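S2.1 Query sequence (TetR/AcrR family transcriptional regulator)
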Amino acid sequence: MLGAMTTSTAAGATAGAVRPMRADARRNYERLLVEARKAFAEHGTDASLEDIAKRAGVGIGTLYRHFPNRHALMNAVFQDALTSLLSRSGELASADQPCAALVEWLRAIITHAGEYRGVARALMSASHDASSALSQCSVPLRDAGTRLLSRAQAAGAVRSDVSITDLLQLTNAIALAAEQAPSDPELADRLLMLTLRGLKA
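Output structure tokens follow.
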């Protein structure tokens, strides 16, 4: 699966600086993330925030102090996936076959977006809402993807009118389609290949 995503701002941030969390606050934050990952994996990203707080052993008010809304919590949960995707894009940036590198990276996004039900839909929605905490996921991904796309275009493998924004929307749409057809594990890859045929120069 997956705006300028930086490490999620910890609770206790002020407008000018981020104060370190107290030990108990840090423990609550980490427990909430652990339980959110479990709940999202079991029930999708629409999982009850109240249940997540309860499973973490804290009140819902504590959850909201750390994560003001659902998208903020999702943003924090997806940090590991984002780091992995950005790292992979860096590795692929000097690949001998720029088009194949771009395809591999897009496939990795689809795979990550498929880890939690509801992620693809949320990312598609957040891409049009700069105020959403989840929109922070797309800027570094877009920057990383732009570099891979530009190399593929410079190599003459991809049409010059293709944008990374369109590609990311397409990958989210493919991940969403695959989510709706769990009995067909090859669907995402087939759709990606069909899409890419239309992108070739």
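The longest helix spans residues 23-43. Residues 124 and 169 are 6 Å apart (CA to CA).
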